[in-house]
Amino acid sequence: MKKYFINISLLLAIFVFQQCSLNEEPKTFISPDTFFSSPDSYNAAVMGIYTDVHNLWASNCMMMKEMFSDICGEPSASFEQAYPTYTNATEPFYYNTRDMWSRCYSIIKNANFILSKLPEDQKALIGEAKFLRAFAYFHLVQFYGDIPLRITPVESYADVQIPKSKQEDVYALIVEDLKYAEINLNEKAPQQGRVYQLAATALLAKIYLTMAGNPLNQTALYSNAVQNAVKVISSGQFALMDDYSSIFHNTVYTSESVWEKLFIPANGGNGLHNLTSTADSYRPIMVPATWFINSFPQGDTRREWGIQQTYQDPNGRTLAPFFQKFINNSFTDDNIGSSGSGLLNYTIPYLRLAEMYLIAAEAENEQNGPANAYQYINKIRWRARVDKDNSDQVPDLDGLTKEQFRDAVLMERKWELHLEGSTWFDLKRTNTFNRIQEIRGDALVHPIGNYNQTWPIPDTEITNNNIDQNPLYK
Q1: For the chain, which residues make up each domain, given as ranges?
Q2: Sign of CA dihedral 50, 59, 429, 143
Q3: Whole-angstrom Cα distance, residue 394 to residue 458?
Q4: Class for domain 1-58+96-165+447-474, per CATH?
Q5: What are phi and psi of 165, to 5 degrees?
Q6: Regarding beta strands 307-308 and 322-323, do their DSSP bridges make them parallel or antiparallel, or are they unpaired?
Q7: What is the number of other CB atoms lying within 10 angstroms of the CB of residue 27?
Q8: Mean pLDDT by 10 residues, the chain (474 residues)
Q9: What is the three-class DSSP state of 245?
């Protein structure tokens, strides 16, 4: 891949220069070996890996994570490649499939390089780099299936052209990296936005749940998923927020945050406002499907607050329904337009406590049926009530079969976690892409099929790396 040939020492030099006086002019080129000479330089290098992580929630990548799922309705046709993606007509040269691939491998490239330079005694930083590498590989293997697996820096063009590895081998590395991270990361994050031990535990819970489902179907790992999720829940380090709306529209962590992306105002912002606002100044690619709006239980704040259906702008115009999670309504009211997205500094949850409850509920049900799983899902349903004292709103679940509970917890994930990057992943691991066919029907250019288990590998990678393309539309 071409991006492997970017000289990472340039990136590292930037970190050094950022700490210099603005009036100081660099006189010499700083080589990687010179840069890696102190704990501060090691730390700065690892922090640099995060640069590409939040780009996995950029517009092109969110088309894959959320828009091509059953919860989203028809996007703005003016948004270039969004509408073809919605209609199941993505091509290997589209921005979304190229960007997801390149951004993930950029994270891996930087992590591999830094891991090759860190001294063995820097275990916490090694764990941090391995966590981020695992996070990137998780996205790649989910979206593309079998992929080239790299754990060392690329030294020559010959190193680029390697064959794909099986998904099982990719997941083996992911688990190995996260287990190392869980043991060796700091117990507390050095600062918000960086990972730590329980973040690795939480991500492992999500990985195990995924591996237990389609396509690996390693069902014994449901036990691991429960254990890791319950470890996070019972740690005492987190607590569910009483009000669902208070989880969002924040600039710092809440008590529920396990790992989130933070933004610095005016230094690159959260672009999800631009992707979800239905005001005239925006081009939304993620809008709630009608069936999804109507699917919520009565009195569910995740709809009453989370999906605005009758919002009026200052001119009295009623906007089309929109997801509220990452909308700053003052931007809409002031008609700032899509250019204002760079100003939005609301955090983006990567992992939060509520998902651990839902993982525990799902995995426990798959192992043993619903008897001991109700405690986890009903905690989330109680929190979702507009009136906490009214048990008729989002009522507790009870008396379900294993199959009924399975369906219930998957819906609960859609209601609770929409727009947080798990919706397409859930469709894949539960092999329920037929939901898109049922809902969009004739709007699809190509019918849903087995090929939808993976996205097309970017055309540039097929050419440069000499690897086989994934199955395409038939």
Answers
A1: 1-58+96-165+447-474, 272-346
A2: negative
A3: 43
A4: mainly alpha
A5: -105, 150
A6: antiparallel
A7: 5
A8: 36 35 38 72 92 83 92 83 93 93 95 95 97 98 97 81 94 98 97 97 98 98 98 98 96 97 77 88 91 98 97 91 93 73 84 98 98 98 97 98 98 97 96 96 95 95 90 80
A9: helix
